[in-house]
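Retro notes (design track)

What went well: tokenization of the new backbones is finally stable.
What didn't: we kept losing track of which sequence belonged to which structure.
Fix going forward: every design gets posted as structure first, then sequence, in one message. First example under the new rule, 279 residues:
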């Protein structure tokens, strides 16, 4: 039996990169997936591609749907969640996968630029979780939230506004895990009534963030990848595999953790030092 058979998942930022890889992975494992994205053309294309690849999921004759979801607007978020539940008749899994970063130096980051990065990255994640939470609490076997954080939220990688927002996501997952665990909710012996909250912290991953910058971006991606113990960038599918595990019942006793999926970057600089020395 597929791990997500009979379950429904909403993936924000699900039309591109890591988000699309997560969407495809959950659909392949049996979930009905709803792609929440501000880019509706891309979301519709992604849903069509998934419907061509996998068998139908729960609640309909389709495996994937596209909904408009601008995480900076509470009304848009609430409508996206409501449409998800209307189409799927349930919501078991939320993958919060939105982040905005820039190369603006900290000294040049005014309040507007700080907000441009931090609002979708941190506040947007919380808006989606808040809207989805009542439905996730009703999920049989417990609901699951997996947030895409970043290695930037764990170690110094630059980009202060983005990094601070991702660190906020990581800490929010810990607090929410405690507040909505079965013990705190008094539902240890119940069939539902709790939600697990976890995060993944990707390192440098081969997405359009790099490739849209052309040869320079691809060179930078490879250089950052060489800083890891594995010596290369990650792939969206590798991040999606970790997300699928944390969202599944295989991780039923895991909550409040952040799993680095970074090729060993966050363990420290020794691998890079050894490589530079030729050892």
């Amino acid at each position: 039996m597929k791990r997500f058979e009979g379950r429904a998942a909403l993936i924000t930022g699900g039309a591109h990169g890591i988000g699309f890889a997560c969407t495809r992975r959950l659909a392949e494992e049996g979930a009905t997936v709803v792609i929440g994205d501000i880019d509706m053309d891309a979301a519709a294309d992604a849903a069509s591609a998934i419907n061509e690849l996998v068998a139908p999921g729960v609640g309909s004759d389709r495996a994937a749907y596209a909904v408009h979801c601008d995480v900076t607007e509470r009304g848009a978020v609430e409508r996206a969640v409501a449409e998800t539940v209307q189409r799927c008749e349930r919501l078991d899994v939320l993958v919060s996968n939105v982040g905005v970063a820039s190369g603006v130096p900290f000294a040049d980051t005014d309040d507007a630029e700080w907000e441009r990065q931090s609002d979708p990255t941190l506040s947007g994640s919380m808006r989606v979780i808040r809207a989805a939470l009542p439905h996730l609490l009703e999920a049989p076997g417990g609901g699951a939230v997996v947030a895409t954080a970043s290695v930037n939220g764990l170690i110094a990688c630059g980009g202060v506004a983005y990094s601070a927002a991702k660190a906020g996501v990581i800490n929010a997952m810990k607090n929410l895990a405690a507040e909505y665990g079965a013990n705190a909710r008094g539902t240890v012996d119940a069939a539902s009534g709790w939600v697990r909250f976890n995060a993944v912290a990707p390192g440098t991953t081969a997405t359009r963030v790099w490739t849209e910058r052309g040869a320079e971006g691809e060179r930078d991606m490879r250089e950052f990848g060489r800083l890891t113990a594995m010596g290369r960038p990650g792939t969206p599918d590798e991040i999606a595999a970790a997300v699928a595990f944390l969202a599944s019942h295989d991780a039923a006793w895991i909550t409040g953790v952040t799993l680095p999926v970074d090729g060993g970057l966050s363990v420290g600089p020794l691998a890079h030092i050894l490589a530079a020395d030729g050892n």
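Added context from the reviewer: The CA atoms of residues 20 and 210 lie 16 Å apart.
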